[in-house]
Amino acid sequence: MSTKEQVLKYLQENKEDYISGGFLSEKLGVSRNAIWKAINSIKKDGIMIDAISNKGYRIVSSVDVISKDAIKKYLNDGNIRVEVFDSLDSTNTYLKEKGAHGESEGLLVVAKEQTKGKGRMNRAFSSPKNGGVYFSLLLRPSINPNEALFITTIAAVAVVTAIKKVTSKEAKIKWVNDVLLDDKKVCGILTEGSISMENGSLDYAVVGIGINVREPEGGYGDEIKKIAGPVINGEDIEDVSSKLVAETVNEFMKYYNKLPEKDFLKAYKDKSIVLGKEVYIIDSNHGSLGTTSEIVSKYGDSLETGKVIDIDDNLGLVVKKKDGELETLRSGEVSVRTK
């Protein structure tokens, strides 16, 4: 544990009291200058610290530091191994390499920033520092590759449930795995894996999740500012990022450990924003023409429409078209009609 982390730990454990630099220096076996540097570094992370001469330092705001200790404090499963990084190119890429070299199931990798975050359909996933939390979990499921979508779906259910537990806010899921809060996308999910050449099953899978905790400094980029939003807007929640990570993993493992029973399906339907709604159907031919909202804006009159009447056991979207025909969608996207 670094000097900065140790200083923060002492301040968190003694929130009602001022802790002197001299005490910290002696306790940690470092110089007063090292303590001063640690305090300034903590302040740069956005944590407000009151400093009074001859008394010391005290935290005066809720702390949201993403650390191994903070995450493990809220995890239910003691077998989950946690690694935390200030920055990675991609948590999925990091874990895929680990998986390829035999790492066992249950490694959770968390980054405060991704420089090459990945989204669906080879899209980049914006992962700025101080805007969100980005994490991936290594799995070795006993399922066929065509069932990998279940992992993504469980992740969506887990994120929505975690948001409710941590913030009391009601997020929803837009088929297949978009997590929306106040009609804004607050989370990205990407599952990747490797297929065994011996039996055709999944050798390993990596489920990656990025949650927009708060709006980053300067706002969202032009390419996503119309569709992206944060989970919190000024609310003061202690350890909010670490709680969101831990609670998401807690909920995920609850359903993952009983994956063959498909218990997650009921929760997925309950949290769906499209069931019973009229939708535009956006197939693969339109997929490269822009974001969902852009496609609807430009091509809405030519898109097929229908009413979603069910989500089947394989996550197909059952849509009733205008002529009464039922069609089960297995790929593509939909957009809820607002007119």
From TrEMBL:
Free-text function comment from the UniProt entry: Acts both as a biotin--[acetyl-CoA-carboxylase] ligase and a repressor.
Q: Mind listing the UniProt keywords for this protein, alphabetically?
A: ATP-binding, Biotin, DNA-binding, Ligase, Nucleotide-binding, Repressor, Transcription, Transcription regulation
Q: Which residues form the BPL/LPL catalytic domain?
A: 65-256
Q: Name one GO molecular function term.
A: DNA binding
Q: Return the annotated DNA-binding positions.
A: 21-40
> Which protein is depicted?
Bifunctional ligase/repressor BirA
Which transformation does this protein catalyse, written as a reaction? biotin + L-lysyl-[protein] + ATP = N(6)-biotinyl-L-lysyl-[protein] + AMP + diphosphate + H(+)
What organism is listed for this UniProt entry? Eubacterium uniforme
Q: Which family does it belong to?
A: Belongs to the biotin--protein ligase family.
Checking InterPro entries in the record gives: aa-tRNA-synth_II/BPL/LPL, Bifunct_BirA, Biotin_CoA_COase_ligase, BPL_LPL_catalytic, HTH_11, Transcriptional_repressor_C, WH-like_DNA-bd_sf, WH_DNA-bd_sf
Return the PROSITE patterns for the record. BPL_LPL_CATALYTIC
Q: Which GO terms describe its cellular component?
A: cytoplasm
Q: Please state the Enzyme Commission number of this protein.
A: 6.3.4.15
Binding of biotin occurs at: 90-92, 114, 185
Q: Which gene encodes it?
A: birA
Q: Which CDD domains match?
A: BPL
Q: What class of enzyme is it?
A: ligase
What's a Pfam family in this record?
BPL_LplA_LipB
The protein's matches in NCBIfam families, at most eight in alphabetical order, are given as:
birA_ligase
| Gene Ontology biological process | protein lipoylation; regulation of DNA-templated transcription
